[in-house]
Specification:
heterodimer, A: 667 residues, alpha+beta, PH-domain like, Cyclin A, domain 1, Helicase, Ruva Protein, domain 3, 9 strands, 51% helix, 9% strand, B: 200 residues, alpha/beta, Rossmann fold, seven-stranded mixed sheet, binds guanosine-5'-triphosphate, binds magnesium ion
């Protein structure tokens, strides 16, 4: 009861404003506390060098620092301070690859005087091979990236903690140490409410956005301030957008606003509030009208406070019932798929795509006709350059064909006797063979015994596992390849398209699950931004790890829609038109469609996972894309700021180091 | 020890084992009575529920079906945490899958709930001509490790319901009067085993 009320408070705009001030003062306190590290009154009880985070899978982007436990009075604080990049190190890195972490990246991950009272648990990982690391999970359910102890010392760290605070080994998992488990629930939720000020270090400052521009941390502070400030005027709002004539989200946000006749006097926060409150119906808008769900006692996060807030919103809107009458879908009307005549018009006489941006926009809003996919996908995936000519592409196909044959011959030449002594090869082949025979076999192209196309799937995947031996084969890859081969109907071309796709999505399959974790974390931040009642619900239901969305993200909804619709969705996603991470907005859009059911039925993790798995085949694709589009536009820079740099499918920067960390033996 | 009346148990059960061993197929056979030659691989995890009547008690299994590939191993603790029972599945036509099963047994012995009822299932028993793991070898291993063992076939349904029944029977509170062989009953009910009227 208490907790729910607190969540409601956090959702209240006035409260949010006061909280903003409060977290401001917390931050001021923090800088006061930074005196803690100085000799007066505080004591460093633990200090460990070479504790490193791996923001991406690239070794060059790892950030080392010093981990400290500092005691002040009876309170214990944890800090992790990245080392200043030494000129040597920086000079070397910028010469070789200019991809090393910038000073800002470094400070982004800094943990400064985190009170241990804000920590829920610490999970210890001690792999047989590779470095030991810990994951610090905050009361909010969010976690800091893994801290790798390059010079050992995890035991000592936990030992020191034990001396100063009460920690308890979890009964469920011997490697999990609970820090505040015994705490009074009221206090715990209070401390979690303060969290945004603490965690946001890694998330608030918006770094590179999808267009690659860099906005300063100050700027995003300002945006946040504005977000909380309900009185921000329209001129400021649209003024900010005028600077960004190129912003594709612009027409759309205005369109969304017009749709609500709310063009005047609306700041971004109000818009996102509308998303939270006006769009919370998993079912028909009519059904919703009949139920007074603001009074429903079962709904967490829709307590009297919400009614109050709702009144605030409606005082601006012309008709208080308008939200209920609105159709469920928000984004632009979907268009018909790109057709041959249009496609031809995008090409100049030599076959170059003149305006790739316009092409991507066109495909984003309508997809492509099936017979064009074979051509169009190669551009979207990055296998073909937009400014290549017909002749160049034909030449490329020939070159790539022979290159493919060479890689393929590497495993084809392995004799049976050789294979006997090559366990890794046999295992890998075994994995692939087990999977291809159960991939999309109900599709006529792959149907029936001894289907040659199934053998082609196998050959391509095995060749890929030689092309990218470090990544190898992982379950889920055959799901990606199957539609590609279905479209390309050509072994070598399918291979290279798959290679291009894996350039972006390979990290989904990393052994350390880093790519998946960063996407799930970004998703949780997006839901927090775009639907805080749902976020609060998932928080109290202990579902903030978002593992129930694992399948959606790992294979980009491949199992959720019928075959042809998957292809449509993929080409929409691959345009990267509104965002490289549009798939995450898709996740938010689907969750929002069913939020009422999820919260109303008080689903716990098990039930939620079952529910989400069973949604497969029942999600309205066009409607969801439109919702996601609107969400993406409304989230704007704040949405971008939720997604840490390097989150797949952002394109990685090539380095000399291996792309795929080999902490463990690879299958 | 009243076992008469409303004796309803909810038990969380997790399926572990190598990819392609037939975990999903076993669950589908048990829950829906179906079998698919081309059952697709499991991504992440799937959840099913099925209730069994056992004399005068009912056991509602909440079944977690996990992804088998080694690479997803790190996610498994999330699913076996707090489970009252586990079925470790291997494929009798694959020695690798049997080795993998042994690893799972070790991991559960180290990390899992000590009261967990653990079954070893040698699946694809219909493929006798391709057998690579003998029944004796597996039975000996199971006995040494306090597991109960059955060979199953999701395809022909042999022993599928039986293995779930046997687990239900061995759950600490399902039949408190009889102490099933190889099981040590403790005062403490297994974690996550929610009992509504027995042991009261
Ligand atoms: N002949 C035979 N085939 C089976 C049996 N059980 C499963 N299979 C087949 O084995 C393959 C793999 O079965 P799954 O149930 O998907 O295996 P799994 O353990 O769930 O695999 P992952 O989800 O990848 O971990 C499928 O093609 C099934 O049809 C069985 O009892 N007999
Ligand atoms: Mg499965």
């Amino acid at each position: 009861m208490h907790e729910a009320e607190l969540h409601d408070l956090s959702d209240d705009s006035d409260y949010a404003a006061s909280q903003q001030q409060a977290s401001g003062s917390i931050m001021r306190c923090d800088s006061g506390k930074s005196a803690v590290t100085e000799p007066n009154g505080s004591e460093v009880v633990y200090s460990k060098d070479n504790v490193t985070i791996h923001p991406t899978q690239y070794a060059s982007e790892r950030i080392s620092g010093r981990l400290l436990l500092v005691k002040q009075g009876s309170s214990l604080f944890m800090s992790w301070i990245p080392y200043k990049a030494s000129t040597d190190e920086l000079g070397y890195m910028s010469r070789s690859s200019n991809s090393g972490p910038t000073e800002k990246d470094r400070s982004l991950y800094t943990i400064k005087n985190l009170p241990l009272t804000d920590v829920r648990s610490i999970r210890r990982h001690t792999p047989a091979l590779g470095w030991q690391y810990i994951i610090v999970v905050l009361s909010s359910g969010l976690a800091f990236p893994p801290l790798y102890f390059y010079s050992g010392g995890v035991r000592e760290f936990l030992g020191t903690l034990k001396q100063h605070i009460f920690i308890m080994r979890s009964a469920d998992d011997a490697n999990v140490f609970l820090v505040n488990d015994f705490q009074d629930p009221l206090q715990r939720s209070l401390s979690s409410l303060e969290l945004p000020g603490v965690v946001s270090v890694a998330n608030r400052a918006s770094l590179r956005d999808s267009r690659g521009s860099v906005s300063s941390a100050d700027n995003s502070e300002r945006v946040n301030q504005e977000t909380y400030d309900g009185s921000a005027s329209t001129s400021e709002y649209s003024g900010r957008h005028k600077h960004k004539a190129y912003d594709p989200a612009r027409d759309l946000s205005i369109q969304v606003l017009e749709k609500f006749s709310l063009v005047t006097k609306f700041a971004r926060e109000t818009t996102s509030q509308l998303f939270r409150e006006g769009h919370n119906n998993g079912f028909s808008p009519y059904e919703k009208r009949q139920q007074n769900n603001y009074a429903s006692p079962n709904l967490v996060g829709t307590r009297p406070n919400d009614a109050q807030k709702n009144a605030d919103v409606t005082s601006v809107a012309s008709d208080p019932l308008e939200f209920d009458k609105l159709p469920l879908v928000w984004g632009k009307q979907r268009e018909s798929p790109l057709c041959l005549a249009e496609w031809a018009a995008f090409l100049d006489s030599e076959g170059r795509v003149v305006d790739s941006k316009a092409l991507r926009k066109r495909i984003f809003y309508g997809g492509a006709e099936h017979n064009l996919r074979k051509e169009v996908w190669k551009f979207l995936l990055g296998y073909h350059e937009y400014d290549s000519t017909f002749a160049e592409r034909e030449y490329l196909a020939a070159v790539k064909k022979s290159e493919y044959d060479i890689i393929k011959s590497q495993w084809q030449s392995i004799s049976a006797t050789q294979a006997k002594r090559f366990t890794k090869f046999r295992e890998r082949k075994g994995l692939i063979e087990k999977d291809v025979v159960r991939t999309d076999r109900s599709i006529s192209y792959y149907e029936g015994e001894d289907n040659p196309n199934v053998a082609v799937l196998r050959d391509i995947l095995l060749t890929y596992s030689f092309y990218n031996f470090d990544l190898g084969y992982c379950q889920g890859m055959s799901d990606f390849l199957s539609p590609i081969l279905y479209v390309m109907k050509d072994e070598s071309e399918s291979f290279w398209c798959f290679v291009a796709l894996m350039e972006r999505l390979g990290p989904n399959f990393n052994r350390d699950q880093n790519g998946m974790h960063s996407q799930l974390l970004a998703l949780s931040k997006l839901v927090e931004l775009l639907d805080s009642p749902l976020h609060n619900y998932l928080k109290q239901a202990d579902c903030l790890n978002y593992f129930f969305c694992f399948r959606w993200i790992l294979i980009q909804f491949k199992r959720e829609f019928e075959y042809l619709k998957v292809m449509h969705l993929w080409e929409v996603l691959w345009t990267h038109y509104l965002s490289e991470h549009f798939h995450l907005y898709m996740c938010v859009a689907i969750l929002k469609r069913y939020r009422k059911k999820i919260m109303g039925e008080q689903m716990d993790f098990d039930t939620l996972l079952k529910f989400i798995n069973e949604l497969s085949g029942h999600i309205d694709l066009d409607g969801t894309i439109r919702d996601a589009e609107a969400l993406c536009a409304c989230a704007g820079e704040n949405g971008t700021a939720c997604i840490p740099p390097g989150t797949p499918p952002s394109l990685p920067v090539e380095t000399d180091m291996g792309l795929y960390p080999q902490d463990d033996d690879v299958l | 020890m009243a076992t008469i009346g409303n004796n309803n148990i909810n038990a969380k059960l997790v399926l572990l084992g190598d990819m392609g061993a037939g975990k999903s197929s076993l669950v589908l056979r048990f829950v829906k009575g179906q079998f698919f030659e081309f059952q697709e691989s499991t991504i992440g995890a799937a959840f099913f529920a099925q209730t069994l009547a056992l004399n005068d008690a009912t056991v509602k299994f909440e079944i977690w079906d996990t992804a088998g590939q080694e690479r997803y191993h790190s996610l498994a603790p999330m699913y076996y945490r707090g489970a009252a029972a586990a079925i470790i599945v291997y494929d009798i036509t694959s020695t690798e899958s049997f080795e993998r099963a042994k690893k799972w047994v070790q991991e559960l012995q180290k990390q899992g709930n000590p009261n967990m009822v653990t079954a070893l299932a040698g699946n694809k028993a219909d493929l006798e001509d391709k057998r690579r793991v003998t029944t004796e070898e597996a039975r000996t291993y199971a006995e040494e490790n306090g597991l109960f063992f059955m060979e199953t076939s999701a395809k022909t349904a042999i022993n599928v319901n039986d293995i779930f029944y046997e687990i239900a029977r061995r759950l600490p509170c399902a039949q408190p009067a009889q102490n099933p062989t190889g099981m040590v009953l403790t005062d403490r009910p297994a974690e996550r085993l929610q009992i509504s009227s027995c042991c009261a």
